[in-house]
């Protein structure tokens, strides 16, 4: 039985990936349809993207009317694209340009476009009106271009043979009154026409896609469903040779009325990259929100962001060829773990440090930090889009070549980002005198004496720790009082070696990293006359990230 849903109905939700097996062959008779038009509501040019197909017994391309009606009697024309050679645009070849609507069935929301393409899909030959033999033939597929992708996606779906009015379907799934009223007002499709249920994820870009049996014979045209692809509830218009297609000269007035109707929540038409842009903007917002929400500790912003990152990349992978999707997921996960997660850790540390140094300029510095973060994440988004675009064009023969190119070249573009971010934040800290202490805290004598005391303690106990640390940092004798770099490294080695992992508590480990970070800052302060030392500043960042990790664990484990 259907559950109760109050999700917005989407007229061109059109079927996408599923966990069911997918047919391997793309059809040469299935095309991406593009309708470029001017949207007066937002004063922008837009491109409606959907799917269409040619049939064997006639000329023209069949598609959903709601995606191409905006181009009716417009200066902009409709174009059809497919994979393969010839003139290319965005990885697709143009098979028909400047085509028009020649006839339409407004009630069934079906259009026939002009085209000289020869050949096409066969129509299922059956006695039943819906052409569905549910008990003898259970394999059905939707063929099309979800999200306006350049790869055709044959996707398995389930269908129910019993025809019923769309009106009944809307009542069964209990959509909101507003959604039902919008559809009643639009009258295309008419909610009283017959449709059949489709069980499968529906995504933008598959409006007008053919639903076929295992012989690739057409049984219906994908039309609408629930929830932007999150709900496996949809409908399709039965394909019948007696569709009431009328020449545009007979229905021009009705088409112009339909063209003028605004249906922002009932369709998913737009630029093929719109959804990626939206997701990447959302990613930037989630990073900033995750860092802010975890400012008091007790949670990990990297884990919070990673959850949404996984959802986004999983969606992106659906639109890639078999094999490319798996390699893309492995590669994009590596990108996050090695490049993006460390940057988020640095952002978290910088924000905490600014808040800890509370003064009258704290909010101004936080605003400055947010601006820097947005600039950095814009570059992350640009590089992520580049990775998605490269894998979207991959074939079985080019997958590993593309993966190597991404790892060798694209990943390297992120390397300067972290260093640039740290430098910008260091400049803020330096201007605020965060790294300049006063009094004997900033004297070399006190630091030298503290490290010397540790050295003597291990000499008296005849421990091997001195020998280990000397060898580890490449010295043979205890350093002089002004050899601050060597003293710092020796102090760091002592701290980490003294930490017994078998008896240390989470608090012990946290405190060690806190002290080490303080010593990095102190040595930097001692040498402030020579400017900020990159070695100590880099250590300050790394040790701060380690401290935050253990501090989060400590707070989570505390009662």
Notes on the protein architecture:
The protein has helices spanning about 165-170, 175-185, 250-260, 275-295, 300-315, 325-355, 360-390, 400-410, 415-430, 445-460, 465-475, 485-500, 505-525, 535-555, and strands at about 10, 15, 30-40, 45-55, 60-65, 80, 90, 90-100, 100-105, 110-115, 140, 155-160, 165, 195-200, 200-205, 210-215, 220-225, 235-240, 245. The protein is of the alpha+beta class and about 550 residues long. The longest helix has about 35 residues, at about 325-355. It is elongated and about 100 Å long. The two termini are about 45 Å apart.
On the 0 to 100 scale, the average pLDDT is: 77
Say what oligomer this is.
single chain
Helices and strands: which structural class? alpha+beta
Principal-axis shape: elongated
The percent range for strand residues is: 15-25%
Q: What is the number of E strands?
A: 19
Largest sheet: 9 strands, antiparallel
Tell me the distance between the termini: 45 Å
Which percent bin holds the helix content?
Answer: 40-55%
The whole-angstrom Rg is 31 Å
User: pLDDT under 50 segments (min length 5)?
Assistant: 1-23, 266-273, 436-440
What is the helix tally? 14
The strands making up the biggest β-sheet line up spatially as 7-8-6-3-4-5-10-9-19
Helices and strands, with pairings:
Blueprint: E1 9-10, E2 13-15, E3 30-39, E4 44-54, E5 61-64, E6 78-82, E7 88-89, E8 92-99, E9 101-105, E10 110-113, E11 140-142, E12 155-159, E13 164-165, H1 166-172, H2 177-186, E14 194-199, E15 202-204, E16 210-213, E17 218-226, E18 234-238, E19 246-247, H3 248-260, H4 274-293, H5 301-317, H6 324-356, H7 362-392, H8 399-410, H9 415-431, H10 444-460, H11 465-473, H12 484-498, H13 506-526, H14 534-557
Antiparallel strand pairs: 1-17, 2-15, 3-4, 3-6, 4-5, 5-10, 6-8, 7-8, 9-10, 9-19, 11-12, 11-16, 12-14, 13-14, 14-18, 16-17, 17-18
